[in-house]
Specification:
Helix content: over 70%
Shape: rod-shaped
Number of strands: 0
Radius of gyration: 28 Å
Distance between the termini: 83 Å
Number of helices: 1
Structural class: mainly alpha
Order of helices and strands: H
Length: 68
């Protein structure tokens, strides 16, 4: 195998590797966006639960499990 052929094969492999790195980078970026969104939603849900429980006054009848 001559030097030019080997160099051409390496260039093709490098091109595929660069494409794969770019694809993986985009996937990681999208996943991080999803993680950030889920964290914001979880924080909002936690805040709603905390505020809801703090403002509610429960009576003894409300403490009875639903199967009674």
């Amino acid at each position: 195998m001559n030097l030019e052929t080997r160099l051409a094969e390496l260039e093709v492999k490098l091109s595929y590797a660069e494409d794969m790195v770019d694809t993986l980078n985009k996937a990681v970026f999208r996943q991080q966006e999803q993680i950030d969104l889920l964290q914001r939603q979880l924080t909002a849900l936690h805040r709603q639960m905390r505020d809801g429980f703090a403002s509610e006054e429960r009576t003894a009848t409300e403490e009875i499990p639903p199967h009674y």
